[in-house]
Design goal:
Blueprint (H helix, E strand, L loop, with lengths): L1 H33 L4 E7 L3 E4 L6 E4 L2 E4 L9 E4 L4 E6 L2 E7 L7 E3 L6 E8 L4 E2 L14 E12 L5 E13 L3 E2 L11 E8 L1
Antiparallel strand pairs: 1-9, 2-3, 2-8, 3-4, 5-6, 6-7, 9-11, 10-11, 11-12, 12-13, 12-14
Length: 199
């Protein structure tokens, strides 16, 4: 009996400490685990790209997804036309031509040229975290769980040049409604977080 009481005296504080860490440090723990891997939810070939903006910031429409270039926690690409009349994305001195401009589009638009391998993936965190202390005073409905959602573009041209872009957002879970759309922003941790252009 004494051994059982000693075991309980050790286990109960350990369980409480673990739950407290999960509740109060879940976001940071999730970000840490995401460095080692995330779970793929969907992957599809890029069929169209439309840029809505003035060259810096704006919205990049990839297929039916609207990815913001305004809320970013990292690189700030410029988007415009190249010397060869292609829609191009630039990061510093590096330019990645996405494809020939479509003249019929109101905004700058293109489709991946033949021979390009262009894909967009949607991935999520391995770990979700509970949010029992959150309350929304305006609607009265607060999420009970959160997780990170990632949107990753991988584009490889026939000449070997590659473009990698990664956005991170938060996704909320509401009891009765399930997971909401994955475009919630949190200052300092969401938006475009990675951009890599390689020749």
């Amino acid at each position: 009996m004494r051994k059982i009481l000693i075991t309980l005296a050790i286990l109960i504080p350990l369980v409480i400490a673990t739950l407290a860490t999960w509740i109060f440090g879940g976001r940071q723990l999730s970000l840490f685990l995401d460095r080692f891997g995330t779970i793929e939810m969907a992957s599809s070939q890029i069929k169209s790209v439309v840029y809505e903006g003035s060259g810096n910031g704006g919205i990049l429409h990839v297929n039916d997804l609207a990815l913001s270039l305004n809320d970013r926690n990292g690189p700030g690409p410029n988007i415009g036309t190249t010397k060869n009349d292609q829609l191009g994305l630039a990061d510093g001195e590096k330019v990645f031509p996405l494809g020939p401009l479509r003249s019929e589009a109101e905004n700058l638009a293109t489709v991946p040229p033949a021979g390009d391998a262009a894909f967009i993936e949607i991935r999520r965190s391995i770990l979700s975290w509970p949010t029992p202390l959150e309350f929304n005073f305006m609607t009265g409905q607060s999420p009970s769980w959160k997780r990170h959602l990632y949107y990753r573009i991988h584009w490889k041209k026939s000449n070997g040049a590659t473009l990698e872009m990664l956005w991170r957002y938060e996704q909320y879970f509401y009891p009765g409604n399930g997971w909401a759309n994955g475009f919630m922003v949190r200052e300092g941790s969401t938006g475009l977080i990675q951009l890599d252009i390689r020749s």
